[in-house]
Amino acid sequence: MTTRIIGTGSCLPAQVISNDQLAQWVDTSDEWISSRTGIRNRRIVKDETGAWMASQAAKKALENANTDAEEIDLIVVATCSNDMQFPSTACQVQEAIGARHAVAFDISAACSGFLFGINTVHAYFSAGIYKKALVIGTEVLSKLVDWTDRSTCVLFGDGAGAAVVEAAETGLEGFVQYSDGSKGNVLTCSSRKIQNPLQETTEDYIRMNGQEVFKFAVKKVPECILQVLEQTGTKKEDIRWYVLHQANSRIIQSAAKRLGVPEEKFPMNMEKYGNTSAASIPVLLDEMNRNGMLTRGDRLILSGFGAGLTWGAAQIVW
Ligand code: COA
After folding, report:
1. Is-catalytic flag, 11?
2. Is 19 a catalytic residue?
3. What φ, ψ does residue 134 adopt, rounded to 5°?
4. Where are the alpha helices (DSSP H) in 127-209?
5. 295 vs 309: CA distance, rounded Å
6. C-alpha distances in angstroms, 201 versus 66, 73, 132, 147, 313?
7. CA separation for the pair 212, 204 (Å, rounded)
8. For this structure, is 245 an active site residue?
9. What are the tens digits of pLDDT across the range 3-60?
10. What whole-number distance in Å separates Cα of residue 54 and Cα of residue 66?
């Protein structure tokens, strides 16, 4: 028994912020941002919350999968920017969509979160514990970035994507996932700071060593994709689409080059949304699904990478 995606959904905040608008806030330009990252716009929340966007994406995914919320056994939400410390975003989604039979919890694996979520659900399905699940990535990174730091604030965006998955005969064919806490310091964001009568510290934001993150991604992404292909005995030509975390077009172009696979097989949408962390893969999958780019039987590679450091890849049959 394996894990098959049977429906997708997404929800992006209404407010669009272009590179030109950002250039009014920090010393940057559309030319600098787009040439280095492929990003031109991002969505930023006004009133939307991470849990609300996750619930909207989940409802659309359920509709797309022709599945009732009461059929869902498990909700896994990947997020590194939850609205509340507790209850979890997953429990808030459970309530919002009426999935009253589901067990719900969040996982924290930054930009690899959706991929790790799929793999986690797969482990439950393989053990015969659950049969239907929602895997969601949702982020409000706009509240974690320092809007005076041009080296990070231009990169990120808000949004949510969801997939309904079920235990089936075909679907996920293999995966690898990794963590390296020893390199965690290259991409960090501290949680709420200590605040008590003895000690008070100031708020912190996303801090990143961009070049180190870049080097990590261009090495590890192709490496783990090749590992999955070897694990499943699949030729890289037999993969219809390589669906990578949408951090930076240059990282994706480099991965395509290193793998020797045409860039056209690597769909990208960071131009519209920036890096939405755990939401980027499910948002892209949903766009591809709704644009008719996915046919049942297509083989896809999903690959995520990000803070932790964390990274991995999975091969699925659509
Ligand atoms: N606009 C204009 N100039 C900027 C800028 C901005 N938004 N951000 C940084 N710069 C400047 C720097 O201050 C620096 O100026 P200096 O040479 O006068 O000191 C110069 O541009 C080059 O900075 P550098 O950090 O070396 O740029 P880079 O070519 O490495 O590109 C990133 C920076 C962030 C685009 C690149 O490192 C990257 O994409 N890294 C991966 C980040 C990522 O994807 N993170 C998420 C992973 S999940």
Report:
1. no
2. no
3. -115, 130
4. 150-153
5. 33
6. 49, 41, 44, 19, 38
7. 20
8. yes
9. 999 999 999 999 999 999 999 999 999 999 999 999 999 999 999 999 999 999 999 9
10. 18
Asked if 250 and 38 count as a contact pair (C-beta separation under 8 A), the reply is: yes
Gap between the terminal Cα atoms of the chain: 15
Mean local confidence (pLDDT), 234-262: 98
Q: Among 151, 155, 245, 249, which residue has the most ligand 1 atoms within 8 Å of its CB, making it the best to mutate?
A: 151
Helices 89-97/50-64 angle, 10° precision: 50
By percentage, how much of the chain surpasses pLDDT 70?
A: 99
- Counting ligand 1 atoms within 8 A of each CB, the residue from 20, 211, 309 with the most, and so the one to mutate, is 211
Token digits for 53? 């966007």
Question: Model-level pTM greater than 0.90?
Answer: yes
Cα dihedral 290, 80, 173, 274 sign = positive
Query: Ligand 1: residues within 6 Å at CB?
Result: 28, 32-33, 36-37, 111, 150-151, 154, 208, 210-211, 213-214, 247-248, 275, 306
Burial environment of residue 316 by CB neighbours within 10 A (0 to 12, 13 to 18, 19 or more): buried
CA nearest to 318, candidates 4, 9, 64: 4
Spatial separation of the C-alpha atoms in residues 12 and 158, rounded to whole Å: 7
259: which 2 tokens? Answer: 């793998």
